[in-house]
Amino acid sequence: xxxxxxxxxxxxxxxxxxxxxxxxxxxxxxxxxxxxxxxxxxxxxxxxxxxxxxxxxxxxxxxxxxxxxxxxxxxxxxxxxxxxxxxxxxxxxxxxxxxxxxxxxxxxxxxxxxxxxxxxxxxxxxxxxxxxxxxxxxxxxxxxxxxxxxxxxxxxxxxxxxxxxxxxxxxxxxxxxxxxxxxxxxxxxxxxxxxxxxxxxxxxxxxxxxxxxxxxxxxxxxxxxxxxxxxxxxxxxxxxxxxxxxxxxxxxxxxxxxxxxxxxxxxxxxxxxxxxxxxxxxxxxxxxxxxxxxxxxxxxxxxxxxxxxxxxxxxxxxxxxxxxxxxxxxxxxxxxxxxxxxxxxxxxxxxxxxxxxxxxxxxxxxxxxxxxxxxxxxxxxxxxxxxxxxxxxxxxxxxxxxxxxxxxxxxxxxxxxxxxxxxxxxxxxxxxxxxxxxxxxxxxxxxxxxxxxxxxxxxxxxxxxxxxxxxxxx
Length: 474
Prior knowledge:
Elements: H1 8-22, H2 28-33, H3 39-61, H4 66-78, H5 88-100, H6 107-118, H7 122-125, E1 126-129, E2 135-136, E3 140-147, E4 152-158, H8 162-172, H9 177-183, H10 189-202, H11 205-218, E5 225-226, E6 239-243, E7 247-248, H12 250-254, H13 258-279, E8 281-283, E9 291-294, E10 299-301, E11 307-309, H14 312-326, H15 330-340, H16 351-362, E12 371-372, H17 375-386, H18 394-397, H19 403-422, E13 425-426, H20 428-436, H21 444-455
Parallel strand pairs: 5-10
Antiparallel strand pairs: 1-3, 2-3, 3-4, 4-6, 7-9, 8-11, 9-10, 12-13
């Protein structure tokens, strides 16, 4: 049975995360020059420092095509408190430039990509094709079209030349590491290595189409999750055609009543994190832009350029660690991490620090009580876990998380961030006990999910293609 404790760690994480984030964009020189000045002058200098730093980051990342959008997406999902509240709106405006920066490409140029890759004129492939994009991906745009058999489809098309541009940017990414870390200290070498690996993989839409087909088969006939089927025969390296899901986007969902948002939040949690512990596979790129609420109440999930499969042994290790943390078994947790190589300097890490570190990031789903997730809660936990300026857990932050767990923890943080953006509440631990303790479901959605699991044909595919090459440990 999980412990009943106050969520003090969560509150502390939020507070410390905000304190750490408040100083992100102030250089050491600026801080020293503030001594002895009035509050008004210090506030003005902080604002000017923030503007200079964010403009520098936007300038650097604005030249990096898909890389900029990927980092911008991560920042927006976690809603990081990078500046004091008084300056937040200005920073968000700057961040919007980064997040939405996309090449201006004519439809004629995008049409040429489609026809070159598919080897046929557009009219031979599609009965109708909308010339205006309906969405932007990190390396391309999405259009609506109709096939000759009447099916409505979404067509994701890469910007011409984006593959070469992204690869060139990734080679130069290390050059800008100091600039990035001045505003985003959580952009560690491990994050950059993962970003490089992921962006390379996302350039191949043919592989993504195959993965999406398998995930759609995995979730076929699910009561509340829908994954659109890809059309592999019409997909290529730079073009991905899949079924079109007509639904409300995340911004509309955020305006729904509490009960509906809570229901959708549970579905998001089950898809992005439940899949890992149920099937040993998960989508590594949780993002609000990849979620739609269909008219029948099901939640549609999109974009599978980054999809990971985890070995059963690694999944069991994560479950065992989470159970140890939920049960306050600090010594057991530390020993597990030493044996796995997560802690490679045992003399520097005590059992309590190890436990507190895990709980600072994961207590929201380990405490047996209803928790309402806010953006501040999610960003505070993230910054407390990874920000080198937060004084707590300095020893743990110097350890090396194996790449196979780096991917899953990133997905966990981004899912947490999405739930914070949604502003939903649940007893997340009661949901998680289904996969942590193999217990019967405690919610209506859980009961529907388990009924679906029970009737799944034994021969239905359960795994996507093997995971991509593992990132190097840093």
